[in-house]
Write a structure and sequence with these properties.
Blueprint: E1 3-13, E2 16-25, E3 31-35, H1 42-56, H2 64-73, H3 82-103, H4 107-110, E4 119-127, H5 130-135, H6 137-153, E5 158-162, H7 173-190, E6 195-199, H8 206-216, E7 223-225, H9 233-242, E8 247-249, H10 256-264, E9 270-271, H11 280-293, E10 297-298, H12 306-316, E11 325-326, H13 335-338, E12 339-340, E13 344-346, E14 351-353, E15 363-364, H14 366-369
The structure holds magnesium ion.
Length: about 400
């Protein structure tokens, strides 16, 4: 069996362009699906996949680890850069999909079978803009509370909110109190039996992130995400050591050695590797093993498209330390027109039962995808009140 060609399909889906990767073999009807979505870098990733393809054409698609090594190590430049590690991930996922199809089993059965009966999903409430945090703080906190109640009414037992305003490297009490008010409102609205996560989007400096973490600690968050830049390992470690709340990070790290350094410093308790950015299942399974050695939980970053979600779930059914799956709820109304998924979601509890179809268990309607061609994503630029550049 040989790889005959590699195609990409770009599908514009509201906030982002989904990049689906199709690896086609010389066996009739045998191909694999992957995903390599990377917001604001769609053209770069499609080009990177084109650059990698000549390394793979004519090779046996079932030699997945061998081909991963080829993609990562050949032609001098290692695959640790974000664009290339995403391109590798898209191809790697498709190769595992093929391997599952060859053996007639879901991917998680290639790795030892299911380690759990179901996976819990969490929803995303979104965030508030800077003005709403400061100009209408009471209404803003009430809005978070209403969104939280809606998520629970929709069946979620856990949700995440960006309930922390963007801040300059040092600011006074106002943003700390604004975040406190929003999280208190959500906790009061849903009670203690619902799990709340807060995402700081890596905007705060370590000094501000520490203050947010401390003021939110009494609310018993399930985790506090990216309380400072991912490059600041000392900052993450200091915050993680200072509070009881588990600190989560990892969605912007792209390779095993970066996670090694994060875990060695104990920069987090929850590893949010992104399977579509960190080299696919092949590298994600190595990162998971390393996390296991540190007793660090797994909660992969997963705001992308349907192949990414199928991949996160296959991973979750095979990984003992996987705790929860991020789900994008109602992203586009035509989602069901383009994709058929192998797993089932219990809508009343927002839990997922395992896929029983081979590979990722996913099929994509290519003619429907073509109705949603590439569009430039909205350019999300953030500036502080003095005109200096901030983080989105
Ligand atoms: Mg995040």
């Amino acid at each position: 069996m040989k790889i005959e060609r590699i195609e990409t399909l770009v599908c514009h889906a509201r906030m982002r362009n989904w990049i689906f990767v199709k690896v086609i073999t010389d066996q009739p009807g045998l191909f694999g699906w992957g995903e390599a979505t990377l917001e604001w870098h769609t053209r770069s990733v499609v080009g990177a996949i084109e650059d990698l393809a000549p390394l793979l054409i004519g090779e046996d698609p079932t030699r997945v680890e061998y081909l991963w090594q080829v993609m990562w190590r050949q032609h001098f430049w290692h695959g640790s850069g974000l664009v290339r590690s995403t391109a590798i991930a898209g191809i790697d996922l498709a190769l595992w999909d093929i391997l599952g199809k060859v053996h007639g089993v879901p991917c998680h059965k290639l790795w030892g079978g299911p380690v759990r009966d179901s996976i819990r999903l969490y929803g995303h409430l979104g965030g508030g803009n800077l003005e709403s945090f400061y100009e209408t703080p009471v209404e803003n906190a009430n809005r978070f509370a209403e969104l939280a109640q809606q998520a629970v009414a929709d069946g979620f037992t856990a949700f995440k909110a960006m309930a922390v305003p963007p801040t300059m490297p040092i600011e006074g009490l106002q943003p700390i109190k604004a975040a406190d008010a929003c999280v208190r409102a959500m906790r009061d609205a849903v009670g203690d039996h619902i799990d709340i996560m807060v995402d700081c989007h890596a905007r705060p400096s370590p000094a501000m992130g520490l203050q947010f973490a401390k003021v939110l600690d009494p609310y018993g968050l399930f985790f506090l995400e990216e309380p400072c830049w991912p490059e600041s390992l000392d900052g993450l470690a200091a915050i993680n050591a200072a509070v009881a709340t588990p600190i989560a990070t990892g969605e912007r790290l792209t390779h095993l050695a970066a996670f090694r350094d994060l875990f060695a410093r104990r920069g987090c308790e929850v590893c949010q590797l992104d399977i579509t950015h960190c080299g696919g299942f092949t590298e994600a399974r190595r990162i998971a093993a390393l996390a296991e050695a540190h007793r660090i939980a797994l909660a992969p970053h997963n705001p992308q498209g349907p192949v990414s979600t199928a991949a996160s779930l296959e991973f979750g059914f095979s990984q003992p330390s996987y705790v929860i799956c991020e789900s994008v709820h109602n992203d586009v109304p035509w989602r069901d027109d383009i994709v058929e998924e192998g797993f089932t979601v219990d809508a009343s509890t927002r839990t997922v039962l395992p896929n029983n179809r081979p590979g990722l268990g996913i099929s994509i309607n290519e003619s429907e995808v073509k109705k949603h061609p590439f569009q430039q994503e909205v350019l999300e630029c953030v500036f502080y009140c003095d005109g200096s550049v901030g983080d989105w």
